[in-house]
Amino acid sequence: MAVPAEPVALGGVSLAGATMGTTWSVRAYCAPTRNPHALHAIAQAALDDIVAQMSPWVEDSDLVRYNRAAPGSVHALPEAFADVLRCALDIATRSEGAFDPALGALVDLWGFGPSPSRHRIPGDAELQALRMRRGPSLRALFEEDPPRLRQPGGVTLDFCAIAKGHGADLVAHRLRAANVPAALVEVGGELFGYGRKPDGTPWRVVVEGCAEESNPRPGTEPPPLRTVELDGRAIATSGDRWHGFEHEGRRLSHSIDPRTGRPVHDAPVAVSVIEASAMQADAWATALTVMGAEVGLAFAERHDIAARFLVRDGERLVERVSARFDDLSEIAD
Ligand code: AMP
Ligand code: MG
Q1: How many Å lie between the centroid of ligand 1 and the Cα of residue 306?
Q2: 232 pLDDT band (50/70/90 cuts)?
């Protein structure tokens, strides 16, 4: 006769660290005998792998070596790099070019990249020259089995809009593989959650806003507080709260519009997207930031994307959500 297994009491673990110029954290439930240091090492190693492959700031990362490689050279891609590139190519196509993983030179030109020059306004000729140098489409340079990417000369990849999301996915994947039954993983604000807490409920997170949202100006109503359940789901947020600079009274964001080569003007304050993976959520949040609230919301409705835009309306901050985002989130009392 089969004896039902004794339910194992799960213990809570909180882990934190630094990666990609930001911080990461994990909350997990697992057998209380698990060594938290070993779990920390698993998470940090996953993120270190991504940095070693995809950081534009690490001199010998695979991405930097590709960007600097001789024209005509062909590069074998490590697994995580190839996973991110596939997703980036897919979302570049589906977003009709609003997302572009080959904007490295432009990002750098505007002072948002690894070059020491900070936040300067490039001249038209300089901008034009870089845009002309973009070369063939990235998809045409990519080959599967085994994954390889050709450098035709001058292509500079930048995965900063998608790598943090992939980091959250990869940490979750490795913790699950290490028999951690439930975890909420956060990398630089991008979140992926799986499994259930010991009381049977899924992870519930508050949709990230900004300081103004929780401290509205006197006499104005803040947007509603929303929560999202993350059970095999992710939420990522893009916005110009932390990055960007002012020029002639306008705020320039670190999101670049690939059609103009220029930073997006007056970008939404924040754009949050719920997706099956944090990598997809991260890339879509960037793509919809580039589109802007008006076009982005219509696009999200047409493509059934769960998106929330936080925008300025005079003195007030207001939210605009797609039907799918409304379905997947709950307004807290
Ligand atoms: P995120 O915070 O996820 O929106 O990522 C912003 C970063 O992605 C920027 O600092 C750039 O490195 C890069 N980036 C800027 N514009 C784009 C774009 N249109 N498509 C893809 N990556 C971009
Ligand atoms: Mg992003």
Answers
A1: 19
A2: very high
- The full set of domains in the chain, from first to last, is 10-56+158-186 (no CATH), 74-151 (1.10.3980.10), 202-331 (3.10.520.10)
- CA-CA distance, 181 to 277, in Å (whole number)? 18
Mutate to test the pocket of ligand 1, among 103, 190, 241, 260 (most ligand atoms within 8 A of CB): 103
Token couple for 95 = 């977003």
Q: How far is 81 from 56, CA to CA, in rounded Å?
A: 13
pLDDT at residue 245 greater than cutoff 70: no
Report CA(255)–ligand 2 centroid distance (Å).
9
Of all atoms in ligand 1, which is nearest to the CA of residue 56? 12
pTM higher than 0.70, yes or no? yes
Please tell me the distance from the alpha carbon of residue 151 to that of residue 42, in angstroms, as a whole number: 33
**From 255, 269, 271, mutation site for ligand 1 pocket: most ligand atoms within 8 A of C-beta:** 255
Mean pLDDT of 299-322: 95
The Å distance, Cα 254 to ligand 1 centre, comes to 7
**31: pLDDT strictly greater than 70:** yes
Tens digits of residue pLDDT in 314-324: 888 999 999 99
Count CB neighbours of 83 within 10 A: 17
